[in-house]
Amino acid sequence: MYANKYFSELNKVLNKIQSTQLENIKSAANIIVETSLNGRNIYAFGCNHAGLLAQELFYRSGGLAIINPILAPGLALDVFPVTLTTDMERLEGYGEAIVTQFGLQKGDVLIIHSVSGRNNVTIDMAIKARKLGVKVISLTNLEYSSRVVSRHKSGKRLFEVSDLVLDNCGCLGDAAVEVDGLSQKVAPTSTAAGAAILNALVAEVVGLFVEKGHTPPVFISSNVDAGDDHNEKMLKKYKMNIKYI
Q1: Using an 8 Å Cβ cutoff, are 48 and 174 in contact?
Q2: Model-wide pTM > 0.85
Q3: Residue 29 near residue 21 (C-beta atoms within 8 A)
Q4: For the chain, percent helix, then strand, then coil, each to nearest 5?
Q5: Which fold has domain 2-241?
Q6: Which residues 6+ apart lie within 8 Å of 83 measured at CB?
Q7: Which residues of 118-144 are buried (b: 16+ CB within 10 A; e: fewer)?
Q8: Spatial contact of 41 and 243, defined as CB atoms under 8 Å apart
Q9: Coil, strand, or helix at residue 55?
Q10: pLDDT tens across 95-121, in order?
Q11: Are strands 186-188 and 175-177 parallel, antiparallel or unpaired?
């Protein structure tokens, strides 16, 4: 079955992530915890499908209350025609405007997800953010990105303008399954693998909060008893670092 092929390929990717990315995940967790304890803010961003992982990180049970998604106009999958998002992520200068308008400041953290890491918006955001003193953690596909040419005027790709890189360990083009009689591979791994990396990062962050003697800023399901009360306390306690309500 082709479904089994996909699970097999995805398991290979996940195993590679576990064997190669744990130190960087730990480093990213340390950055996030230090940033939070210093009273600064954590943001997450991605264009079109990459943006799904920015949404994965915020306002959900078992997730961190302090992750702020950057949902900039023209870059999410609610745009019609959706092909506009492809043009928008290549738009020069828009990324700088996003960083400015969303108010990122020195001491903040910006998590950027881009599989290819070659387009203008994410690279502009990373460069602008770092100039402001923001730590940039990128989630990308190093094999893919290393084999494509940047569309940015600097000639740099996202992994080359980041403070810390998390590799989703996927393949060139992202799609992983070969179908007999078809030249194009299908079934991408980046969303599943990226979500696994980021949720592993969440777990590591929470563990560090507990180790340091702090109550971690975690939401629980609003559909379990006492969920609403707990989440309301989190929203109040961290209201200065929550920008999405």
Answers
A1: no
A2: yes
A3: no
A4: 45, 15, 40
A5: Rossmann fold (3.40.50)
A6: none
A7: bbbbbbbbbbbbbeeebbbbbbbbbeb
A8: yes
A9: helix
A10: 999 999 999 999 999 999 999 999 999
A11: antiparallel
